[in-house]
Amino acid sequence: MAIDAIVLHTNDNVATAVQELKTGQQATIRLGRELNQLTLAENIPYGHKFSIRTISLGENILKYGEVIGRATVQIEAGRHAHVQNIESLRGRGDLGKEEQ
Questions:
Q1: pLDDT at residue 24 greater than cutoff 90
Q2: CATH number for the domain harbouring residue 20
Q3: Running DSSP on this structure, what letter comes out for residue 34?
Q4: Which of 39, 75, 96, 97 is the most exposed place for a label (fewest CB within 10 A)?
């Protein structure tokens, strides 16, 4: 079975598209040897991230098991997760360590 996206760590809440994906598509997502299905709520460009579950406003975005940003709005499962709904936490001088 061909895969459409990968998740690299069990704690991740986003997957990375390994090909261009379309709204309504039933995407096959691989985590290790496990395969899961998720219906996409919008188009996902190749190499971009999408939410694999609902991510709450202010919740950390996890990829590779690491925090890569924070949700600026609630992101429903199957939605594109990118600059329109994620803020970077890296290199920000306005945040103290406890906020990151």
A1: yes
A2: 2.30.130.110
A3: E
A4: 97
